[in-house]
Amino acid sequence: MSDPVDVLRLEPEDLDGHTLDELSDYLDRGRRPADPTIDDSPACQIALSALQRLRAVAGTFLEEEDDRSPGTDEDWIGRVLAVLPLEARAGRDFPLPVAAPDTEASVTEGALRGLVRSIGDAVPGLLVGGVRFGDPDAETREVDLDVQIALRYGVPLQEAEAQFRTALRAGLAPHAPFPLGRLDIRVVALIGGPSRPGAGS
Questions:
Q1: Which tens digit of pLDDT belongs to each residue from 114-153?
Q2: Where is there biased composition of kind Basic and acidic residues (predicted)?
Q3: Sign of the C-alpha dihedral, residues 184, 190, 196, 197?
């Protein structure tokens, strides 16, 4: 089985000097002893969350595949993640509305990407990869959102997409400091089942 560390393709400059191998080892140790250079780094925290999520999702899907078809090729996670980029950079700051004129607050693009992925985790058979927020519209302030997903073979596409779309609009509203505009959800890979070269786009 491909190691998620190998397919995230992040360099030390993306992670405040750390590597994904170091972060993976840190998780294996239960984040002990505590390392402030990791714990206080937003980029490292985003990457740690991605690694934890990938481990959990990979384990669940592989157990399900083994139950249905013992001996299933386990390299699917590498193939799926190769087309599902996971962004660990904090990205842009989106200003939050504040009551006091001398106060500033913002939410990072990385935090919102993490929220999108956590919402996707609640949809059975769905794995969120690339998440891209567009630029705010000059008049409406709306921000378009493009999400790439992998779907487990056999999961009804329309049903999963509708559930994810509804959950996204409801889940982002309390946290995003902008109205959500166009929402594009694209299936770019299938998990398990018969081989389908070029599935999704």
A1: 889 889 888 988 888 788 999 999 999 999 999 988 888 8
A2: 1-34
A3: positive
Closest CA to 113 of 131, 91, 90, 95: 131
In the chain, what are the domain boundaries? 1-84, 90-201
Please give the model's pTM, rounded to 2 decimal places. 0.68
DSSP summary character for residue 72: -
Task: Quickly list DSSP for 151-196.
Answer: EETTS-HHHHHHHHHHHHHHHHTTT-SS-EEEEEEEEEEEESSS--
Residue from 156, 146, 1, 39 nearest 85 by CA: 146
pLDDT digits (tens, 9 = 90+) for 78-99: 555 555 556 666 678 888 776 5
pLDDT given at position 99: 58
CA distances from 32 to 15, 50, 56 (A): 19, 19, 20
DSSP letters spanning 2-47: --HHHHH---GGGTTT--HHHHHHHHHTTS-S--HHHHT-HHHHHH
Q: Per CATH, which fold does 90-201 belong to?
A: Alpha-Beta Plaits (3.30.70)
Residue type, 142: E
Nearest to 131 by CA among 123, 141, 143, 139: 143
Tell me if 85 sits within 8 A of 50, measured CB to CB.
no
Reduced to 3 states (helix: H, G, I; strand: E, B; else coil), residue 61 is: helix
pLDDT value at 197 more than 50: no
